[in-house]
């Protein structure tokens, strides 16, 4: 019988938490992993991702059993005697489970019981999970091997695949890249918007390769730092690219006063205006890059762009007060947050992450830049799948389940870019 693997989807880089010998089978379903701490698990560093697994796993189980809450699942487990018997949690397991309860805003259990569970964390014994999956399979059909519901998939709305590939000395499609770098892949990642903001004729072959992937779309624009290099030939190439169906937006474009001197400001503004007119002419959403030029950027946008145009204010780095002005000025606009939000010193970005309506939020990595702080020791460029860590941090700052963040950001991505987030065949973890 074919084995369908049901993973504890933490992340491939934490595989050592679930040793290979800890596997059990359940009528053709392999359950890999358990929560024993073998000395490698750091609750401070890894617990939030384990909490993501717990939420997504039991969300899927409850959906399959048509239950409305984890409490109802616990009642079923007790009524049907699905809990493991004659076993106890090991001391190291109890330490992890107590930390998990704190993460889920539950009081720490003083009398933790495997055989009489009273909370979700009590279900996290491999024998109990074995019984739950078997019960689910018998009563409502097989449990999906991809336990993270497609409803909570996500897309990186801003990355630079050309620069990412260059850093890895890789030349191929994005799907081939993910296969080669599978250990960094997130199970509910389904695609990205690849931004080319200084397109050259030599990159056209790369564009063609990237566009062969189902859920990879492209935005084309001209970065303000390169405004002095803008030519008539640049404009013609951008126009040709905008005629392609999977080129879903114009950007990134805008103003950047953080480098250079005042003489470049007028050049940037002229190119910015030209790009905005092109977006309107081709009916494309706009991706904005703005650094230390808020007043001029907003003034030009208001002058040229209709109020209800779709705009992605990319890589927002300032306070919520500034973000509010942008969102109010353009009701169909969105704010993109990167892994900068994971930096403990980025208090202005934290302010935005806490206060922005989830209906106006987009996840992005700006890959290969902005490495999440939890991964900086790996010395690797960021990649689009790491947008999940942005969602994780936002959920932590707001004190809400990460599924809630992913749900809204998925809808916002579809609304902003008009792209359906169907799963990419062969890219999800199995």
Strand fraction band? 5-15%
Count of β-strands: 11
Q: Share of helix among residues?
A: 25-40%
Question: How does the helix and strand content classify structurally?
Answer: alpha/beta
Give the C-alpha Rg.
24 Å
Report how far apart the termini are.
17 Å
Question: What is the averaged pLDDT score?
Answer: 79
Shape descriptor reads elongated
Q: Uncertain regions: pLDDT < 50 for 5+ in a row?
A: 1-41, 141-151, 423-430
Tally of separate helices = 14
Q: Can you write the helix and strand succession as a string? A: EEEHHHHEHHEHEHEHEHEHEHEHH
Walk across the major sheet and give the strand order: 4-5-6-7-8-9-10-11
Q: Please summarize the sheet with the most strands.
A: 8 strands, parallel
Summary tags:
430 residues; eight-stranded parallel β-sheet; three-stranded mixed β-sheet; 14 helices; elongated; disordered N terminus
């Amino acid at each position: 019988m074919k084995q369908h693997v049901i993973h504890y989807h933490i992340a491939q880089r934490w595989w050592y938490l679930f040793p290979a010998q800890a596997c059990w089978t359940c009528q053709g379903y392999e359950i890999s992993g358990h929560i024993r701490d073998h000395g490698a698990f750091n609750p401070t560093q890894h617990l939030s991702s384990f909490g993501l697994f717990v939420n997504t796993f039991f969300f899927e189980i409850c959906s399959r059993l048509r239950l409305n809450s984890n409490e109802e699942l616990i009642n079923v487990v007790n009524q049907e005697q699905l809990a493991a018997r004659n076993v106890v949690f090991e001391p190291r397991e109890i330490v992890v489970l107590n930390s998990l309860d704190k993460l889920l805003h539950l009081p720490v259990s003083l009398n933790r019981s495997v055989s009489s569970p009273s909370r979700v964390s009590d279900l996290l014994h491999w024998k109990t999970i074995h019984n739950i999956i078997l019960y689910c399979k018998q009563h409502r059909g097989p449990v999906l091997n991809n336990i993270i519901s497609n409803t909570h998939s996500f897309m990186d709305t801003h990355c630079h695949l050309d620069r990412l590939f260059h850093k890895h000395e890789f030349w191929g499609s994005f799907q081939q890249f993910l296969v080669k770098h599978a250990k960094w892949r997130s199970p509910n990642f389904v695609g990205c918007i690849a931004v080319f903001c200084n397109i050259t004729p030599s990159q056209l072959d790369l564009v063609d390769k990237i566009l062969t992937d189902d859920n990879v779309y492209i935005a084309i624009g001209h970065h303000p730092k390169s405004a002095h290099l803008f030519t008539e030939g640049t404009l013609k190439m951008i126009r040709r690219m905008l005629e392609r169906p999977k080129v879903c937006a114009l950007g990134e474009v805008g103003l950047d006063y953080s480098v250079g001197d005042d003489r470049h400001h007028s050049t940037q503004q002229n190119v910015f205006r030209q790009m905005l007119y092109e977006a309107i002419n081709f009916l494309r959403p706009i991706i904005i890059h703005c650094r230390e030029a808020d007043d001029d950027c907003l003034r030009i946008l208001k002058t040229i762009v209709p109020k209800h145009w779709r705009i992605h204010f990319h890589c927002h780095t300032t306070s919520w007060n500034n973000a509010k002005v942008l969102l109010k000025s353009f009701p169909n606009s969105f704010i993109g947050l990167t892994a900068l939000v994971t930096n403990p010193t980025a208090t202005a970005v934290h302010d935005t992450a806490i206060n922005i309506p989830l209906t106006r939020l987009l996840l992005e990595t700006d890959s290969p830049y902005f490495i999440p702080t939890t991964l900086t020791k790996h010395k690797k460029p960021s990649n689009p799948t790491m947008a999940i860590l942005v969602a994780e941090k936002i959920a932590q700052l707001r004190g809400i389940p990460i599924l809630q963040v992913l749900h809204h950001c998925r809808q916002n991505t579809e609304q902003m870019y008009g792209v359906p987030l169907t799963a990419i065949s062969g890219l999800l973890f199995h």
